[in-house]
Backbone:
């Protein structure tokens, strides 16, 4: 009886993963227990360790094990530009183009009213505080002069970009959006690098 309870507990835990229903969760649990005990333990340890050590960067909100991530600390970066993306994977896509040398802000999500994801569920407040914060510059102005909205070209990504653009009005920064070379409905992560690079150059 105790074993059955443990198994049920594991299936319920696996169902927390996005897109995993009862059937898939059962398959994963059976597989791990039947064929890969070692993998199961490695997975458990990795989850335990990551959940205990990974936090959000104090500046850009992405995942890091430090207070401030290495990208934000990189002195070669242009600190006047801040590119807003939805996920670390989108940031990586922008980085791979080699066309962008500024800083990032990673929302870790997008506004999605249908899924009950509102401004408080993603990093919006932190983004606005970042823009408003008087930086250690001679002028006392925020270092960020341009915010480049690089949320995905999906309905939610466009909504998110619109909300941010509205909120940043009157905060003393230029707000631009990646140009329309990126196909409608697409996620940056899956767009080819040349297209992203062009969209960056042609932003307005
Ligand atoms: Zn950072």
Residues:
């Amino acid at each position: 009886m105790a074993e059955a309870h443990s198994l049920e507990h594991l299936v319920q835990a696996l169902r927390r993963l996005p897109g995993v229903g009862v059937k898939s969760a059962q398959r994963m649990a059976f597989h791990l227990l039947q064929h890969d005990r070692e993998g199961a333990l490695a997975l458990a340890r990795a989850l335990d360790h990551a959940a205990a050590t990974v936090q959000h960067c104090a500046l850009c909100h992405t995942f890091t094990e430090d207070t401030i991530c290495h990208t934000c600390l990189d002195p070669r970066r242009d600190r006047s530009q801040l590119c807003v993306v939805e996920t670390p994977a989108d940031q990586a896509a922008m980085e791979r183009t080699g066309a962008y040398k500024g800083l990032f802000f990673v929302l870790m999500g997008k506004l999605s009213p249908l899924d009950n994801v509102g401004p408080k569920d993603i990093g919006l407040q932190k983004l606005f505080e970042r823009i408003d914060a008087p930086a250690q510059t001679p002028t006392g102005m925020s270092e960020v002069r341009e915010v480049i909205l690089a949320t995905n070209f999906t309905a939610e990504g466009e909504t998110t970009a619109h909300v941010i653009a509205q909120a940043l009005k009157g905060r003393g920064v230029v707000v631009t959006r990646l140009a329309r070379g990126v196909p409608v409905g697409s996620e940056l992560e899956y767009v080819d690098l040349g297209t992203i690079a062009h969209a960056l150059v042609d932003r307005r």
